Amino acid sequence: MSPRYLPVFASLLAAAFLGTYLSSLHAEALMRTQAPAVEDVARYAEVSTTSRAAAPSAASRTALIPILVYHIVRPSYPSDSAAVRSLALTPKVFDAEMLHLREAGYHVVRFRDLEAYFASGTPLPALPVIISFDDGWSDQYAYAFPILKKYGYPATFFVFTNAIGHRGFLSWTDLHAMLAAGMDIGDHTRSHPFLTSITDAAQLWSEIDGSKLLLEQELGVPVNEFAYPFGQYDPAIVALVRKAGYKSARGDFYSGSQSSDRLFGLSAMNAPTTTARFTELFPRNGIGACRRAAPAC
Ligand SMILES: [Zn+2]
Predict the structure, then answer these.
(1) How far is the CA of 196 from the centre of ligand 1 (A)?
(2) Is 294 among the domain residues?
(3) In this structure, are residues 156 and 184 in contact, taking their beta carbons and an 8 Å threshold?
(4) Considering its fold, how many domains does the chain have in total?
(5) CATH code at 181?
(6) In a domain, 292, yes or no
(7) Is the CB of residue 76 less than 8 Å from the CB of residue 85?
(8) How far is the CA of 162 from the centre of ligand 1 (A)?
(9) The pTM is what?
(10) What separation in Å is there between the alpha carbon of 134 and the centre of ligand 1?
(11) Cα(25) to centroid of ligand 1, in Å?
């Protein structure tokens, strides 16, 4: 862990905000990179074109929409741990990935676009992709936010409320500025726990619903998307997320395909940390095939 983050975690741990978070940061990354291979991009292009041309009439809809998950965008430090390096991109690499999406014909959409497509068949653009950020690190505001604005890309920032305003994390002021610039704020619980390990019903509801109420109260906008910490969930937790009024939830294990049957278990993937991996995953105009042998590709 970079010395820069030591005081961050020291203060957070002292406040007993997220005892499991530090030791589990890498686990969250590994859970996503152990996902199945994405379908080849030829199929991706085919389905994307279909979704643009006509809304299917069946109750169940599918769409190939990669959901990228970013954690850390900032300059690298020699002292960065393996856990940090597995999740971190330099601003230069992040900018290159965003530029590549534009040049290769991809269209950045929001979770609400996916929800609208599933709910009523609202057409999606060709080669859609969703960009999301996890955990509310302040570096995301400092380095990724300006680049997103430069390209006019909306992204969803999933934050856990106990960290907001603390050193190293986004502030309420940051979140307001991001909303004003067209970004979305999603819910990532209060304390970033393993939800499936919580046995106290009131605590679980507070993590799922209490955080939503707090975000909506402070931000003055509906917060409709949820991301399970560590991608961990089960049917009981899905039921609570639905009950709380969320419209969709980002899960784990990237399959390359989203389904209206899994609106509360949308598949995501950690964004590649090199442009080589990224351009392999997102070939120009969707032509070509993603190499199945490559992890998370
Ligand atoms: Zn997280």
Answers:
(1) 14
(2) no
(3) yes
(4) 1
(5) 3.20.20.370
(6) no
(7) yes
(8) 13
(9) 0.81
(10) 5
(11) 8
